[in-house]
């Protein structure tokens, strides 16, 4: 059995090469938010039970207070009118909307317990 060891120079060269590659990967990585707003009457919106006003939903699983702004898939800035949603391919949704793909955000659940 051959025991392979790496010298300090080899390890440092690999570390610096990895650090140098990070900005290059960032250039080619896709951006999360597309900037396109969801059409509430579109096919994707209908498939996911999307409604622009969370109080107007007919989903029997909806509970008061559930809206896109406190969903775990919502990546918008708090207080903004709309933001990116992972359920819609990072297209923008209204922060007051609701869809059947709602997943409670951990921070929202924690704030409700205190």
Describe this structure in words.
- The protein is mostly helical and 114 residues long.
- The protein has one domain (32-113): Irregular (High-Potential Iron-Sulfur Protein, Chain A).
- It has helices at residues 8-28, 43-47, 106-113; strands spanning 82-85, 91-94.
- Strands 1-2 form a two-stranded antiparallel ribbon.
- A hairpin with a 5-residue loop joins strand 1 and strand 2 (91-94).
- The model has no long low-confidence stretch (mean pLDDT 82).
Short summary of the structure?
The chain is mostly helical. The protein contains 3 helices and 2 strands, in the order H-H-E-E-H.
SS element count, helices: 3
Measured by DSSP, the beta-strand proportion falls in 5-15%
Radius of gyration: 22 Å
Indicate the overall shape: elongated
The helix content is 25-40%
Keywords:
114 residues, mainly alpha, High-Potential Iron-Sulfur Protein, Chain A, two-stranded antiparallel sheet, 2 strands, elongated
Topology diagram in text:
Layout: H1 8-28, H2 43-47, E1 82-85, E2 91-94, H3 106-113
Antiparallel strand pairs: 1-2
């Amino acid at each position: 059995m051959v025991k392979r060891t790496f010298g300090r120079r080899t390890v440092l060269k690999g570390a610096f090469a990895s650090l140098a590659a990070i900005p290059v990967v960032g250039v080619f990585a896709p951006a999360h938010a597309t900037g396109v707003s969801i059409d509430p009457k579109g096919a994707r919106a209908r498939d996911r039970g999307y409604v622009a006003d969370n109080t107007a939903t007919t989903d029997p699983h909806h509970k008061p207070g559930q809206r896109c702004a406190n969903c775990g898939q919502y990546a918008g800035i708090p207080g903004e009118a709309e933001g990116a949603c992972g359920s819609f391919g990072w297209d923008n949704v209204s922060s007051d909307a609701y869809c059947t793909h709602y997943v409670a955000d951990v921070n929202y659940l924690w704030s409700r317990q205190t």
